[in-house]
Amino acid sequence: MSQKKPVRVAVTGAAGQIGYSLLFRIASGAMLGPDQPVILQLLDITPSLPALNGVVMELDDCAFPLLQGIVQSDDPEVAFKDADIALLVGARPRGPGMERKDLLEANGAIFTTQGKALNKVASRDVKVLVVGNPANTNAYIAMKNAPDLNPANFTAMMRLDHNRALTQIAQKTGSAVTDVTKMIIWGNHSATQYPDLFHAEVKGANAATLINDQKWLETEFIPTVQQRGAAIIKARGLSSAASAANAAIDHIRNWVLGTPEGDWVTMGVPANGEYGYEDLIYGYPVTCKDGKYTIIQGLEISEFSRARMDATAKELSEERDAVKHLIA
Ligand SMILES: NC(=O)c1ccc[n+]([C@@H]2O[C@H](COP(=O)([O-])OP(=O)(O)OC[C@H]3O[C@@H](n4cnc5c(N)ncnc54)[C@H](O)[C@@H]3O)[C@@H](O)[C@H]2O)c1
């Protein structure tokens, strides 16, 4: 039995689809390691509490050795109390006839409340990952509503896009996914994201040079990664959930336990002028060590890449400007 102090992991939207894949893997040790006990602090809205209780019954029935406690609540100040990690998954889905700005508004209200609650009760070092869409802007709103916490601790999930791109390159080049390194998804977790092949490597060789097919890059690779979420909804009738949960596990595991030597990952993190962007939560390549991430700086950016990086930054600025009134 591990002697380590349990880590408090808050998960919102815990009764939802992603929650159903995510919670069991956190409790099994997939996220923080096989010797790290956890306490799950689960938040959902009042009407979803009966369903949440069913999920908790199943967690109990797994008898996970690392799971040292479960809290269930519809109150963010209960769920976020002393949280070391907060996975903000719950969000308002886009309903029929809802415009993008209505979605921003509905989620803005949720992430304002949750940012304030984190500010009030979470651990001062809480690591926040926003999964609920629009993830980058929701993370921005939560960060701005938590003035006592370090802004660097607010991140948005770009890892699903990153992992999707890794597999596209592995399949294209007939290599193992572990042979593909240094992928980057710049910008927003949306259809404007820019999956950048020009710094990626396959067994240490530059991926763009190796593939040497600009038409494929522009007409297949980039759109496939950008549109993957929609393709999954079309095929499955439901949005990606297990792969999203897996990406959340990867994001936190690397942030807490580090990235492998010679590789980096993509995280949506506060932009403070890197590559010319600021006051956004923007997808950047980062390495992680000792629980901290560092943005990879100084990569050479071609005109082709710059146009796409700017386009996704423009969309993020527009989203930010649309929610300005929600920020204190
Ligand atoms: N960043 C990414 O890569 C990525 C990938 C996939 C899905 N997503 C997003 O993740 C979110 C969740 O997806 P899902 O498939 O689990 O959805 P879902 O509808 O199955 O579950 C969402 C859950 O959140 C709960 N919820 C709603 N408002 C809440 C609030 N204010 N506080 C707490 N809980 C609340 C709901 O009751 C529900 O249980 C969606 O916004 C989806 O678009 C993001």
Automatic annotation (TrEMBL):
Its domain of life reads Bacteria
For this UniProt record, the keywords arranged alphabetically read as follows: NAD, Oxidoreductase, Tricarboxylic acid cycle
Q: Which GO terms describe its biological process?
A: malate metabolic process; tricarboxylic acid cycle
Q: Which Pfam families match?
A: Ldh_1_C, Ldh_1_N
Question: Per the record, what are the reactions this protein catalyses?
Answer: (S)-malate + NAD(+) = oxaloacetate + NADH + H(+)
List positions binding NAD(+): 13-19, 44, 107, 114, 131-133
* Catalytic residues of the enzyme: 189 (proton acceptor)
Q: What is its EC number?
A: 1.1.1.37
Q: Which residues form the Lactate/malate dehydrogenase C-terminal domain?
A: 159-325
Binding annotation for substrate: 94, 100, 133, 164
Task: Relate the protein's function as given in its record.
Answer: Catalyzes the reversible oxidation of malate to oxaloacetate.
Name of the protein in question: Malate dehydrogenase
Q: Which organism is it from?
A: Chitinibacter fontanus
Could you tell me the gene encoding this protein? mdh
